[in-house]
Amino acid sequence: MPKNIELWDENKNYIWGKLTDNHKVELWDNNNDYIWGELINNKFNLWYKTNTRVWGSLTGNKIELWDEHHHHLVGELR
Fold this sequence. Notes:
The protein is mainly beta. The chain has no helices and eight strands.
């Protein structure tokens, strides 16, 4: 069963999406830009629309992500 992901960046922008049963991640930001990738061994390996890498970790239900431009996102898996 897919799980919902809710994130916020340092500017309080909302990012939402899902984690599928096969560990794929699909997210959208407030501009409807697509972020995709996967979760393996509680580590996120994601890509943003312009091939910007996004990475981070899942600890319990808490998510913490960063990108190449030092943007920080935090949130939860629900």
